[in-house]
Design brief:
22 strands; Enolase-like, domain 1; FAD/NAD(P)-binding domain; alpha/beta; 7-stranded mixed β-sheet; 466 residues
């Protein structure tokens, strides 16, 4: 079979690229080595983790907050098996939706491992041992990433686990050790903390969420500590050993002292690495860099002109929505259009509670770049909506150019900020000023009023409700 476009990998980047290319008139095939579509995000990442986060959040509210709302639930309990089963059902429904979209858009789906025979031919090695070769005028590599580990850690997938195993445990850990204080570690740590586990986070950097604004990291640390999570920052892990049902982690703290942590499970969440194994890139002449990523130009084109790469296998944040945008960009570029993507305006989100969200530059990045800026900050506690719901933690911070007032970065901690951040992203896409945001009429009472107030604080230093 010959296609205008072959997409290798059916995650958010791959399946969106395939759909957009088909919409624009291309004959498209997509190759997926697993039996379900959707990649890491839909199967063992974004979607299942949010399902468990939501279930555990409901339980946590029942035991911690229902009483203050006048709701009496005597001795709330949870059925962890049902939570996991619900998560599996959400995943099944969502991945089934991708299969429907492939059929709807006349995209041929090949199940098997895709590998390059040359720059235009891809071999599909199927699970039954057979194979076939298909031809593509253009090819997109969208094979995503897999969890990273440290050289001295042996992941046994039973007690020493990655995020994949953490989403399908048979029991709630008694004491979960989390190596890595980034997004994945904090989200999964939150799930099990809410369900009764002791959770200890061990982070090499001086703060959790080390790539985010320092005010955000500080606030999130404070809130999660209040919820009972324990943090050990500036602490470098030196060994992880399993002894039966016990895991012992040794590390060196910021004073240079050896410290030991003992738990029944250890989640290794030290990032992810590009997945290119078995692709046969050398057969097509596609080059990768020393970090294992595929080098691309501004059009996401590799060194081989008809081969493109998107998502976690290329530079930039490993985020599903970033991969989706890149998939659209490639499909539209191949159709002769002139799409663009602003990597500065890709929001980053942590789905703890309260949530964390950010877009644009952090204060530290502005300082390092020598850009004169002004900052406005507004506490969620000052909002009527926050007081009504009882979600008082967090803030919104707006960073604006000191001379032009253009919004350069927005950072949030609070209820529903995962959705609220898009107000900032839209404003920044149109190069709005802090004054612009401050002068937009926001509904009352809403969480969004914090954006208006923080913008006013950045613009003229005079928020109205603080």
């Amino acid at each position: 079979m010959k296609y205008d476009l072959i997409v290798i990998g059916s995650g958010p980047g791959g399946y969106i690229a395939a759909i957009r290319a088909s919409q624009l008139g291309s004959k498209v095939a997509i190759i997926e080595k697993y039996s379900t579509l959707g990649g890491t995000c839909l199967n063992v990442g974004c979607i299942p983790s949010k399902a468990l986060l939501d279930s555990s959040h409901h339980y946590y509210d029942a035991i911690k907050h229902f009483d203050e709302h006048g709701i009496s639930v005597e001795n709330p309990t949870f059925d962890f098996g049902k939570m996991v089963a619900r998560k599996a059902n959400v995943v099944e429904t969502t991945t089934g939706g991708i299969k429907y979209l492939m059929d709807k858009n006349n995209i041929d789906v090949y199940e098997g491992l895709g590998s390059f025979e040359d720059a235009t031919h891809v071999k599909v090695s199927k699970n039954d041992g057979t194979s076939e070769v298909i031809e593509g005028t253009n090819i997109i590599i969208a094979t995503g990433s897999k969890p990273s580990t440290l050289p001295f850690i042996s992941i046994d997938k039973e007690r020493v686990i990655t995020s994949t195993e953490a989403l399908k445990l048979k029991e709630v850990p008694k004491h979960l050790l989390v190596i890595g204080g980034g997004v994945i570690g904090l989200e999964l740590g939150s799930v099990y903390k809410r369900l009764g586990a002791d959770v200890t986070v061990i982070e090499y950097a001086p703060t959790i969420t080390p790539t985010m604004d320092k005010d955000v990291s500080k606030e999130l640390t404070k809130v999660l500590k209040k919820q009972g999570m324990k943090f050990n920052v500036s602490t470098g892990v030196t060994s992880v050993e399993r002894n039966g049902d016990e895991v012992v982690v040794k590390a060196t703290n910021k004073k240079g002292e050896e410290v030991t942590f003992t738990g029944d499970y250890c989640l290794v969440s030290v990032g992810r690495k590009p997945y290119t194994e078995g692709l046969g890139l050398e057969n097509a002449g596609v080059k990768i860099n020393d970090r294992g990523m595929i080098d691309v130009n501004g059009h996401l084109q590799t060194n081989v002109s008809n081969i493109y790469a998107i998502g976690d296998v290329v530079r930039g944040a490993m985020l599903a929505h970033k991969a989706e945008e890149e998939g659209v960009v490639v499909a539209e570029y191949l159709a002769g259009q002139k799409p663009h993507i602003d990597y500065n305006l890709i929001p980053g989100i942590v789905y703890t509670w309260p949530e964390v969200a950010a877009v644009g530059k952090t204060e530290q990045e502005l300082k390092d770049a020598g850009i004169a800026y002004k900052a406005g900050k507004f506490s969620m506690r000052a909002l009527g909506r926050s007081r009504a719901s009882g979600d008082l933690d967090g803030f919104v911070k707006v960073l604006a150019d000191k001379n032009t007032d253009e919004v350069l970065g927005v950072h949030m901690v609070g209820a529903r900020v995962a959705d609220l951040i898009m107000e900032a992203a839209v404003a920044m896409e149109y190069r709005a000023s802090a004054e612009d945001l401050a002068r937009i009429c926001h509904g009352h009472p809403t969480y969004s009023e914090a954006v208006k107030e923080a913008a006013k604080a950045a613009w003229d230093g005079k928020p109205l409700n603080a």
